[in-house]
Design brief:
The complex is a heterodimer of chains A (225) and B (429).
Chain A (H helix, E strand, L loop, with lengths): L2 E5 L3 H13 L3 E5 L2 H8 L6 E5 L7 H10 L6 E5 L4 H9 L4 E4 L4 H12 L9 E4 L2 E4 L4 E4 L2 E2 L4 H11 L6 E2 H7 L11 H13 L8 E4 L3 E4 L4
Parallel strand pairs in A: 1-2, 1-3, 3-4, 4-5
Antiparallel strand pairs in A: 6-7, 7-8, 8-9, 10-12, 11-12
Helix pairs in contact in A: 1-5, 2-3, 6-8
Chain B lengths: L1 H39 L6 H9 L7 E6 L5 E4 L15 E4 L6 E8 L5 E7 L1 H51 L15 H52 L4 H31 L7 E4 H18 L3 E6 L4 E4 L1 H18 L5 E9 L2 E8 L6 H13 L9 H15 L3 E5 L4 E6 L3
Parallel strand pairs in B: 7-9
Antiparallel strand pairs in B: 1-2, 1-5, 3-4, 4-5, 6-8, 9-10, 10-12, 11-12
Helix pairs in contact in B: 1-3, 4-5, 5-9, 6-7, 7-9, 8-9
């Protein structure tokens, strides 16, 4: 059971995070201040840290910075009530691996923690496979059971993003940020249109659907063909 | 400035020269008048003798005297004729000699017995002195003026360089580098004192901005922290109730409402952040053609779904200094808006053109457009952040676009596309 250390001073928020992550099979421990959190974080065995930026005694970014300087590279998700454009950059510079603005959907938090723990392998392989789906990163060709999917540029990128995170929930925000480079909200259904097109090519009528929609959260590429 | 100063100096010098020679003439005239009075006061019988003995007084005598009969013929004296235009009022007058070669200052007076007494003095030398003065002034003035001008230019270059430096610093401060200060010498000139005052204003401004930012951060924190717990609890309640129950659907609606108000707050805080917190000194060169082509590529499927033709017309390959993510956000919002307001069968065009002032981005649609009388108020509304909460939904997105353009100092215009709306961003390199 992966162990997660949550450093968050707001008791209600900390409790909700604990309940949510526990529900998804994580072993969660909560600490309310930075100094105690740092001490706890130094102990081995953690799979990930979830650190609020503004915690008493020692702020969240200092906690992460100290851990990194001590050679502890356990992935860290920074939670913040600050949404200024430069804040995210500061968070990542301090050694945070991902940055989530409060308030967030619990599904978003879980998906990001999962993504941190199961970070995609960025090895030298040029062909990625998941179930009946395979994509060739060199020829930019995607196939399902040998059938060429004839994907357009962004559709291919979305499938690549999903196949690198097999059976994981990928949130709409993650796709918008990482595939489109959009860190802002749009009123149109831009993402649904792109994913819809990918799905129509990936899951033909009569085939087992592989691209699942997780209501209110995002998408998941399944392998059960 | 320096040449004006030099001219003034020259004029002053000539004035002094003129006044000095004037004094010379006055002395000369006084001596003529005195001699005339002196001689006229003598008994008339003694006059010929006195004039003659005076003539024999030696070469030092420079005054000429003449005694003339009532018919103006010379009786005695070294002045042989009365200067033709001389008024016999006893006052000195300037007149030319008979042969016209010299200038005389002369005073004449009719004596009681009808004879005429005239005292004259050659003023040619005095005039020569005046001319010498003027010539000397000019001779001195040429190098003097040249020196003054050179000095002026040197000062000009120095103070220009200083002003340019001040200008550059001020530009950077306007760009958000509020911690910069103008260089001011403590014991310097007026400009230094002005800079020192300006620096004190800047310090106040910086404190104010920091306080404002802190307030913004506190608002953000105080709003978001309880909302995080609220939203999480609602989600948990929703999961417990199930999405197929009336309670579940109600909770889902609540989550939607929370998210809606939150995204408005987020956008407002972001606009405030763009207006106050960003430093334009962090800008990087951005390839506008690539930015527009990528945006059109991303929105193409959306346009196709809505049966709208979307195209990019790139007539220039231009770079501008800016923040890539923010410029992407601005253009994406404009295209997003244009697609939303264009009916099926319509067209949305994204253009990049080159103008003398810099590259111009425009997004044009064939939708209903914005009436001419409303355009200014729409723009004004951006500035005031008075977001319209009606169904159009243009307000917030365009407010962000406006804030991003302001940050980059790019003016934005709303024009008529006949039919439709055309939004133009004038960029500067």
């Amino acid at each position: 059971m992966p162990a997660i250390l949550v450093i968050e001073d707001n008791p209600a928020t900390a409790e909700e995070i604990r309940l949510e992550l526990t529900r998804h099979g994580f072993d969660v421990q909560v600490e309310v201040n930075g100094v105690a959190g740092l001490d706890l974080a130094r102990r081995p065995g953690w799979s990930a840290f979830v650190v609020d930026r503004m915690v008493p005694h020692l702020d969240g970014l200092s906690v992460i910075r100290t851990l990194r300087s001590e050679g502890i590279s356990t992935p860290a998700l920074v939670l913040s009530a600050l949404d200024a454009v430069n804040e995210r950059i500061d968070g990542l510079r301090a050694g945070g691996d991902d940055y989530l603005i409060k308030p967030f959907a619990l599904g978003e938090l879980t998906a990001r923690v999962e993504a941190l723990i199961r970070r995609p392998a960025s090895g030298p392989q040029t062909v990625l496979r998941h179930g009946p789906v395979e994509i060739d990163l060199v020829t930019r060709v995607a196939r399902r059971n040998g059938r060429d999917l004839e994907l357009l540029g962004r559709e291919f990128q979305i499938l690549e993003y999903l196949i690198r995170r097999p059976d994981q929930v990928v949130t709409r925000k993650m796709l918008l940020e990482d595939v489109f480079g959009y860190r802002f909200e749009l009123k149109t259904n831009l993402l649904d249109v792109h994913v819809g097109r990918l799905r129509r090519k990936l899951d033909l009528p009569g085939e087992v659907p592989l691209l699942a929609t997780i209501r209110g959260t995002g998408f998941r590429l399944d392998a059960n063909a | 400035m320096a040449s004006m100063f030099a001219m003034l100096m020259l004029a002053l010098f000539e004035l002094v020269a003129w006044k000095a020679t004037d004094l010379l003439f006055a002395t000369l005239d006084r001596s003529i008048s005195e001699q005339l009075e002196l001689l006229a006061a003598r008994p008339s019988a003694m006059l010929p003798f006195m004039i003659t003995s005076r003539m024999n007084g030696g070469p030092a005598v420079v005054t000429q005297v003449g005694l003339f009969l009532p018919d103006r013929t010379s009786e005695v004296g070294d002045l042989l004729t009365i200067p033709p235009d001389l008024v016999l009022d006893g006052q000195p007058h300037e007149s030319r000699s008979d042969d016209g070669t010299s200038i005389l200052h002369a005073a004449g007076k009719a004596l009681p017995d009808g004879r005429i007494l005239v005292v004259a003095r050659d003023a040619t030398e005095s005039l020569a002195v005046r001319q010498d003065f003027i010539r000397a002034g000019l001779t001195l003035a040429v190098p003097g003026v040249a020196f003054t001008i050179a000095l002026g230019i040197a000062f000009g270059i120095l103070s220009n360089r200083r002003l340019r430096h001040l200008n550059d610093t001020a530009e950077q401060i306007m760009g958000g580098a509020l911690s910069l200060r103008l260089s001011a010498d403590v014991e310097g000139d007026e400009l230094d004192r002005l800079c020192a005052i300006f620096n004190r204003i800047l310090a106040r401004l910086e404190e104010g901005m920091a306080a404002l930012r802190n307030a913004g951060e506190n608002i953000a924190h105080d709003l978001r922290t309880p909302l995080t717990a609220l939203r999480a609890r609602l989600e948990r309640a929703y999961n417990a109730a199930g999405d197929d129950t009336p309670v579940g659907r109600m909770i889902d609606d609540c989550i939607g409402n929370v998210d809606q108000s939150l995204s408005t707050i987020t956008a407002l805080l972001r606009i405030a952040d763009l207006q106050n917190g960003w430093r334009s000194t962090d800008f990087q060169p951005c390839n506008l053609a690539a930015l527009l082509e990528e945006t059109v590529e991303i929105f193409q499927p959306v346009a196709e779904e809505r049966q709208i033709s979307l195209s990019a017309v790139i007539e220039a390959h231009a770079y501008v200094d800016g923040e890539w993510d923010l410029l992407v956000e601005a253009v994406a919002n404009l295209v997003d808006n244009a697609l939303k307001f264009t009916p099926p069968g319509g067209h949305v065009g994204v253009f990049l053109r080159s103008r003398l002032e810099g590259p111009v981005i425009s997004v044009a649609d064939s939708g209903p457009g914005i009436p001419a009388e409303a355009r200014e108020s729409v723009l004004r509304r951006f500035v005031k952040l008075d977001i319209s909460r009606n169904s159009t939904g243009r307000g917030l997105g365009l407010s962000l676009v406006q804030a991003i353009c302001d940050l980059h100092h790019f003016p934005i215009f709303i024009l008529d596309n006949n039919p439709g709306c055309k939004i133009v961003i004038q960029c500067f390199r």
